[in-house]
Automatic annotation (TrEMBL):
Pfam families documented for this protein: Smr
Protein name per the record: DNA endonuclease SmrA
PROSITE patterns registered for this protein in UniProt: SMR (PS50828)
NCBIfam families: endonuc_SmrA (NF033154)
Gene Ontology molecular function: any one: endonuclease activity
The organism's taxonomic lineage, starting at the top: Bacteria, Pseudomonadati, Pseudomonadota, Gammaproteobacteria, Alteromonadales
Keywords: Endonuclease, Hydrolase, Nuclease
Length: 193
């Protein structure tokens, strides 16, 4: 017999066969809400991804003392602008409290807040990092890292320890550079017609 004859005889034998009706015996996983364990695992993965992507150092830091002033100014920032920041003369548009946060949470919160503020056009914010006299593994642990992280961020052009009424040695004023959209709006606003 040839293969065509085999195929034909097979089809003839199968002509009266009806397919079985199979009832669904599986549960569609998308219709069930994720379990607590799945949700926590997903959140941990998302958090780790954000931590890995932000570029803020986790390595060695130069410790600062709990009662030290911290300050920084990029080249090109005018002295008058920096003096006004130092004296707390700028309106504080946003505030971030890092006290009582763990290292990873503080790092992630700082990065996300600075990034979001810059994108929204916020120029001045206050970061409350705390003095950290009793922090571990050394005093002023988070304060030391905030000092380093702010210097690593491109959007930050200056910062200085806050005045007493805004948190003193446990807080810092941060000045962000203008977002490109702000520069364009200012250019259009002040353009002579």
């Amino acid at each position: 017999m040839t293969s065509e004859a085999n195929d034909l005889s097979f089809y003839e034998e199968m002509a009266d066969v009806k397919p079985l009706v199979v009832k669904e015996k599986f549960i569609n996983s998308s219709s069930r809400p994720p379990s607590l364990a799945q949700t926590l695992k997903r959140q941990a993965i998302e958090k780790q991804t954000a931590l890995d992507d932000n570029g803020l150092s986790i390595e060695y830091v130069n410790p600062v003392a709990p009662l030290d002033f911290i300050s920084y100014k990029k080249d090109g920032v005018q002295e008058g602008v920096y003096k006004n920041l130092r004296l707390g003369k700028y309106h504080i548009d946003s505030r971030l409290v890092l006290k009582h946060l763990g290292f990873d949470d503080a790092r992630l919160s700082l990065y996300q807040t600075i990034t979001e503020c810059h994108e929204r056009g916020v120029r001045t914010l206050l970061i409350d990092h705390g003095i950290g006299k009793n922090s571990q593994p050394f005093p002023a642990f988070i304060k030391s890292y905030v000092n380093q992280w702010l210097q690593e961020m491109d959007a930050v052009i200056a910062f200085h320890t806050a005045l007493k009424q805004h948190g003193g040695l446990g807080a810092v004023y941060v000045l962000l550079k203008k977002h490109p959209n702000q520069k364009l709006l200012n250019r259009e606003k002040h353009q002579k017609r």
